[in-house]
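Lecture 7, part B: from sequences to assemblies.

Below are the input chains for today's worked example.
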Amino acid sequence: MPLKFRPKMVRQLGLMEYESGSKQVDLSRAAQCLAAGNLVVFPTETVYGLGADATNPSAISRIYSVKGRPSNHPLIVHILKFELAKFWASEIPEYAVKLAKNFWPGPMTLVLKRNNLAKDFITGGQNKIALRVPKNNIALNLLQKFEELGGFGIAAPSANRFGAVSPTSLNDAQLELAKYLTNNDIYLDGGECEIGIESTIIDCTKKIPSILRPGGITSELIQDSLDMEIKESNSKTSFRFPGNLKSHYCPRAKVVLDGEPKNGDGFLALKNIPTPNGVFRLAEPKDNIEFAKVLYASFRFADHKGLDRIFIIPPNHEGIGAGVLDRIVKSVG
Ligand code: TXA
Ligand code: MG
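Predicted structure of the full complex, as structure tokens:
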């Protein structure tokens, strides 16, 4: 499929995007494609995923080779509804049931002790499994059609090469992966992702839940919904956890947070912060929610423009701001 850069302005975000050249395909065909062991790139409300039948070892090994990801890094299994979690997880603590009831479908992944369906090729050999019910309609309809064919879940990492920026539009996913996919694989176009950064990951294997990766379900929301202490994210986890490696989510341009922006830098900051002279404003999000939505597209746009540096004035920790800050810090190579 030819990939064309056709930048156009998205007015409300003040951000350039690339038009998608792909055609919509039928979800039944996409589900059949999964059942046959092929891959489907599909939208979720967080970022685009690269999906495969989570019970098929050869389909899963293709995910690893297409992404260039080490095979001991575990994958998230996307399920249609909470009731399917018992096939994948052996113990679901009371607080995890509460979280699932409150925030699924949604941008939250629960890490649980694994059950029989969760084999080493999904968990990277660990005894835990990561599960998520996504909120995006295309993702849910795909899961529904896949279940009708006997599927239990779709394993899907973000649809980017290992260490690179997650795609928030189909065109970005194609730019990342098209040359590694075949004609038997399918792309589903769901427009731009609503949230723009990956799901919140919560470790639910201990007495107290602990946030492994901040995201759209914020620590404030989690705290409010559970009548117990929670552990905020910290980087000293023993999990093999690519999103937790220091340099991740990296654009080619150098991300700079200190000093002064230089002439020709890309510049990303909230709308109320004026544009310094000589920089190229990448986006002007009005709040932390919009910051999350434009972050990765801004990185990609800076790379498309061939900029050497992206100067960022990060948002505060409030709400999804914690997730945005986490990704910005990790993008500083
Ligand atoms: O929003 C998202 O979570 C997106 C969409 C496509 O759902 N997916 C995503 O997947 O970000 P990925 O593979 O790019 O990042 C998943 C993270 C990784 O850091 C992985 O190590 C962690 O989840 N993970 C998966 N299984 C785990 C497990 N059993 N224990 C601890 N961490 C796990
Ligand atoms: Mg990823």
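Note for the exam: Residues 157-158, 166, 243 surround magnesium ion (ligand 2) (CB under 6 Å). Keep this in mind when comparing with the next example.
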